[in-house]
Amino acid sequence: MKILFVMFLITVFLILLPQKIGDSNIKTNLEEKIEKRIFEIIEDLDNYKIIKQEEQPVDTPKPTVTPTTEWWKYPKEILTTKRSGDDLLVLVNKTYKLPSTYAPSDLVKASNSGIRRGENYYLRNILINDLKNLINDSKQSGADLSIVSGYRSYKTQVDTYNYWLSKNNNDVEYVDTFSARPGHSQHQLGTAIDFSSNEIGDVLGDTFANTKASEWLKTNAYKYGFIISFPKGFESITGYKHESWHYRYIGVENALSLTNKGLILETYLVSLNP
Ligand SMILES: [Zn+2]
């Protein structure tokens, strides 16, 4: 009996032994996995922190626009534009001027947009499709649009500015309220358009503000990527008197973003050109 009992104990031991070894193996594997996982999480968190720290700008001042009472004046220091002229978001104003050598590479005739008048002005090809849609939709709403100025080369700007000086007894301060000095005009970009309408006999100027075409543009132009450059009441920021006819193309996405943020073109471009 004793021998039988000892054999029984040995048999039970032999049966249970592999299971115990197996259990401890599983346990070890699990512990390793858990430990490994915890280690990985810690590692991930560390990496996350490092990435976050790198993303945070250190002591970068927010871009601001300082309004000035003598808003028509140029600053003492004139700078060259930070972005290429081909960049739809390049800031061109009284502080930043385009290089005299800059000309857009994709100029085409405005006639490609189907405009009724002003078809011989040049504009960048990049805006033609949106302009075509703008013209068609304005027509459908009963508003007539024409173009009275588009791309102006650096050389043309020299002539234009000098023309206005000669017309106004070389009154530089007065001319600076409405005419850009060479290199400072958005028209050199090929994305600025001066609009008019048959309502005022296709002339350029203040009378455009009272037209149905102007009203339509004010409400709808941004949907096609166009933004008024020199709005009423913002002279101290833009440096130019109100021009109801002058629009600049910055692309539909940007025009929507600007409108949603309630910004004007100048402050929007300044915020993107730190
Ligand atoms: Zn203009």
UniProtKB/TrEMBL annotation:
Signal peptide: none annotated. It comes from the Bacteria. Pfam families: VanY. InterPro entries: DD-CPase-like, VanY-like_core_dom, VanY/YodJ_core_dom, Zn_M74/Hedgehog-like. One of its GO terms (molecular function) is carboxypeptidase activity. The keyword Hydrolase applies. CDD domains: LD-carboxypeptidase (cd14852). GO terms for biological process: proteolysis. Keywords: Carboxypeptidase, Hydrolase, Protease. Residues 122-251 form the D-alanyl-D-alanine carboxypeptidase-like core domain. This is Serine-type D-Ala-D-Ala carboxypeptidase. It comes from candidate division WS6 bacterium GW2011_GWB1_33_6.
